[in-house]
Fold this protein.
Amino acid sequence: MRITSIRVYADTSVFGGVFDPEFERASREFFDEVRSRRFRLVISAPVRDELARAPAQVRELLSDMAEYVEAVEATVEAVALRRAYLDAGVVSSRYATDALHVAVATVTGCEVIVSWNFRHIVNFERIPMYNKINAVNGYNPIAIYSPLEVLADEEG
């Protein structure tokens, strides 16, 4: 039996996924597992800023999840790590916010990031690049998955 919850950083796409037919089931199940305390939900100021511009139903979901949320900031260290990702070409500066999500999660010690962003975050070529830059900069590697990949199985 797990005593402590896994700290999981969720980016904006996971909240929006609840209202997207393609991602709805897994997104809802992910938030159910947050409510059951399997996961400790971590979000950052960039996620809060993005969600502030989202449709009302997405903002309401964030409000409903408030008691389960650990809010973290994009610190100077996270911004510096984002710069390292950009300088290394993990993603281009056009996708600096995506790199910032990974950097904030890494710097704040999250164990996992969940996202539906398969182009810039949950990407088999980019994940090792993010983690190489993490290692060079003295940070632990971070696991990056879609919500579907972190759900408990029927035995878990």
Observations:
- Residues 10-150 form a domain with the Rossmann fold fold (CATH 3.40.50.1010).
- The radius of gyration is 15 Å.
- Strands lie at 6-10, 39-44, 69-72, 112-114, 143-145.
